[in-house]
Amino acid sequence: MTLGPRPCILLGHAVEGRREGGRMRRGVVLWMVGVIGLLGVASVWAREARELTDAELEREMARNRALAAYVHRNGMPDVAETRFLSDRPPWDDHEVTLYYLGHRTEIGFARAYVLGRPEVQIERYTRPLTDAEVAALSTRAHRRGIGPTERAEEAARRAEEAAGRIEAAVASAEQAADRAEAIAGKMERGFHRALQK
C-alpha cells in the first residue's frame, strides 16, 4: 500500500483531488497576524513616556538612591514620568524623568548594571525647559492637584531648607576655622618656647 502525500495546512497540498486545510490555513495566518499586531502595539506602548503616580515615584525612589536624594533635597516634582531606554547595556530598561516647572528644569535618572546587578544610580542629564514645554506640562501638574499656590509654597519651603543648610555649613566652616586658628596658635607658642631654651 502506498501512502499519499501528507497534507500541509500552510501550503494546501491536494489530497484525493481536493484542497485540504484552506479554512484552517486562513485561521492560522489570521491568528499569527493578530499576535504580531498585538506585539507591535505592546512594544510601542512600552516605549512611550508614562506619567508616574506618587506611589510609583516612591517605589522608584526606593530603587534609585540618587533619585531619592534629589527629591529629598528639592521636594516632590511637579510631574514625574518613566521612559523606555533604548541604550545598550549597562543601562536599565527605563529612566525616571522629573519636571520642576518653577525651576524650568527636566532631570533624568537611571540605573546601570555592574556584574548583573543595578548598583549604579545616577543623574543622566539635566536640561532647561522651554516656555512651550512648561505650558504643556503645567496642565499635567494641575491634574496631580498641584496649583500655582502650592508650587510657590513648595518653592519657598525648599528655599528655607536650602538657607538652613547654608547656615549650618557656614557655622561648621567657622568652627573649623576656629580650630585651625587654635592649632596654629598652639604651634606658634610651642615654637617660641623651643627657641627660648
Summarize the structure in words.
- The chain is an alpha+beta fold.
- The chain is built from 5 helices and 7 strands.
- The chain has helices spanning 22-47, 54-63, 65-74, 131-143, 148-196; strands spanning 14-15, 18-19, 50-51, 79-84, 91-100, 105-114, 117-128.
- The strands form 2 sheets. It has a 5-stranded antiparallel β-sheet. Strands 1-2 form a two-stranded antiparallel sheet.
- Helix 2 packs across helix 3.
- It is elongated.
- Mean pLDDT is 78; it is low at 41-46.
Question: How does the SSE layout of this entry go?
Answer:
Blueprint: E1 14-15, E2 18-19, H1 22-47, E3 50-51, H2 54-63, H3 65-74, E4 79-84, E5 91-100, E6 105-114, E7 117-128, H4 131-143, H5 148-196
Antiparallel strand pairs: 1-2, 3-4, 4-5, 5-6, 6-7
